[in-house]
Amino acid sequence: MNDPRIAFVGAGNMTRSLIGGLIADGRNPARLCVSDPDTHQLSAVASRFQVHTDTDNQRLTENCDVVVLAVKPQVMATVARALGPSVQHRQPLVISVAAGIRTADLERWLGGRCALVRCMPNTPALVQSGATALFATEGVSPPRRDLAESLLRAVGLTLWVEDEALMDAVTAVSGSGPAYFFLLIEALQEAGEALGLGRKSARLLALQTAFGAAKMALESSDDAAILRQRVTSPGGTTQAALEVLESGAMKALLQSAVTAARDRSRALAQQLGAD
Hints:
This protein is of the alpha/beta class. Helices cover 55% and strands 13% of the residues. It has helices at residues 13-24, 39-49, 57-61, 76-90, 103-109, 142-153, 167-175, 177-194, 199-219, 224-230, 237-247, 250-273, and strands spanning 6-9, 32-35, 52-54, 66-69, 93-96, 116-120, 130-136, 156-160.
């Protein structure tokens, strides 16, 4: 399937980021289409990307090879049930980017067994720097797995998990993860201001330091622990700061926070699946 026709159900930020990434990768906009009940959203997408749009999900998806479900989790059951007959008839590859929706529930809403890939992207996908985990049901062939991965790779890093239960851990680490780093940047900026730096200077230093540290870690084959040790001179300023952080049990606190996010993800999945 060299040039599949791809339908996006939902015209929100994730759809826009995916379409932007796909077009940047060379995909033909004429093979991409978007549906949404909000005509203003559709007009904005059509104007920006020159893709076909429609307010009718069924009409849009009935001739597509791939259907990307990018609607809010709270309305997924309603949307999927309406698309069920079309999906069962045509058997497209269905890709869900809705957080917390389990494949068993989505298959049930779609009317039965289908080729389904569940994805957990994160918000940096909006700037083509996302991290996305994917899980495929048994009905997804290797070529279709490759196709799903190529679509999500347009907005950043991708990796597969073979146990769907791990998607809750993915949600806790990378799905919610950007907020953890935003909080650290916020705290570092405020600390700089408290020490006398101007707001703009403290912000720029905190942002560039976060970017630089992440870039170094990505480009290095060493673990973060090794990189941390390399910039920590014995008896120096960095060691003084790290001792304070460690005395506050920073790692244990973060572990508790990520576990809480994982547990909440599980609870939400059960709640959403009860529809």
